[in-house]
């Protein structure tokens, strides 16, 4: 496999970082996960835009334009002869320097990206998934796609240990998002989700879900909803670049209605398929 390292390409075995690397030592960096269908990026512009928003928010100098990064990401697919479904992971840390909380001066950010095959999760997309609920113990800047993922990792692991696919997070009573996806419920034909504030990651797929809802004349309500609402919802689904539009059919061991994906979720899944192909 060929990886992007800074602004050049190399075999992944040549990618070596010193142990004093700020991504490793402080989680001092940002990342993106971008979906690939049939060898082409889906929502590439949205991901590159968000990368720049994250970089600005944490004062990392990317030392590249959006056009340059877009071009490098396109070359990455070509060099790996990607033709099927996959994903690209792109990470930028503040750089390598002797460990000090204060930003080092005059060193470049460390950027790398790699592409991997990732088949669509067709069985889960068809049947839906089970999830648990967990308190959202993260910081106040969840709109930044930061490398600091320990609370997300712990929540997802808790889900796994309960035989579940994801953890729905709630801050006090209000449902925010999941450990690595956005969350929605449907009640009386309307979609409800947390507003795109600093408390959630503004998902690229979430932006498309809003557009699909508008196209389908389904109301997309961003006033949020409560944890207890999950248990009386008509439908629940989550979204992300890797999960797409994923039906949630069981929450904390309780079925969502009859435990099968609902009609609005199905319409949004169809809109997604249409958009991504
Ligand atoms: N996760 N919320 C969180 C906390 C996320 O980590 C993600 C993405 C999303 C959905 O964002 P998008 O629609 O842009 O993929 C929401 C990626 C896939 C990951 O960390 O692997």
UniProtKB/TrEMBL annotation:
Cofactor names: pyridoxal 5'-phosphate
Biological processes annotated in GO: amino acid biosynthetic process; carboxylic acid biosynthetic process; D-amino acid metabolic process
A molecular function (GO) term: D-alanine-2-oxoglutarate aminotransferase activity
EC identifiers of the protein: 2.6.1.21
Class of this enzyme: transferase
InterPro entries reported in the protein's UniProt record: Aminotrans_IV, Aminotransferase-like, BCAT-like_C, BCAT-like_N, Class-IV_PLP-Dep_Aminotrnsfr, D_amino_transT
Catalyses which reaction(s): D-alanine + 2-oxoglutarate = D-glutamate + pyruvate
Keywords from the UniProt entry: Aminotransferase, Pyridoxal phosphate, Transferase
Taxonomy, superkingdom: Bacteria
GO cellular component labels: cytosol
Pfam families: Aminotran_4 (PF01063)
Similarity annotation: Belongs to the class-IV pyridoxal-phosphate-dependent aminotransferase family.
Subunit structure: Homodimer.
Protein name: D-alanine aminotransferase
């Amino acid at each position: 496999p060929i990886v992007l390292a800074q602004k050049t390409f190399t075999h992944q075995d040549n990618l070596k970082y010193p142990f004093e690397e700020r991504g490793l030592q402080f989680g001092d960096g940002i990342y993106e996960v971008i979906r690939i269908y049939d060898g082409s990026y889906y929502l590439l512009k949205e991901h590159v835009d968000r990368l720049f928003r994250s970089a600005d928010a944490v004062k990392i100098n990317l030392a590249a334009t959006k056009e340059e990064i877009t071009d490098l990401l396109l070359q990455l697919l070509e060099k790996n002869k990607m033709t099927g479904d996959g994903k690209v992971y792109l990470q930028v840390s503040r750089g390598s320097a002797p460990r000090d909380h204060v930003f080092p001066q005059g060193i470049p950010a460390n950027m790398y990206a790699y592409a991997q095959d990732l088949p669509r999760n067709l069985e889960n997309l068809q049947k839906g998934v089970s999830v648990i609920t967990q308190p959202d113990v993260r910081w106040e800047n969840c709109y930044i796609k930061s490398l600091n993922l320990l609370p997300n990792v712990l929540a997802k692991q808790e889900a796994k240990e309960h035989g579940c696919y994801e953890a729905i997070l709630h801050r006090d009573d209000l449902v925010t998002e999941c450990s690595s996806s956005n969350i929605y419920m449907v009640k009386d034909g309307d979609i409800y989700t947390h507003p795109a504030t600093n408390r959630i990651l503004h998902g690229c797929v979430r932006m498309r879900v809003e557009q699909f809802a508008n196209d389908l004349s389904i109301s997309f309500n961003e006033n949020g909803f409560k944890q207890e609402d999950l248990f009386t919802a008509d439908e629940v689904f989550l979204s992300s670049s890797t999960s797409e539009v994923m039906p949630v059919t069981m929450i904390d061991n309780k079925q969502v209605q009859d435990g099968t994906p609902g009609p609005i979720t199905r319409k949004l899944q169809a809109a997604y398929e249409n958009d991504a192909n």
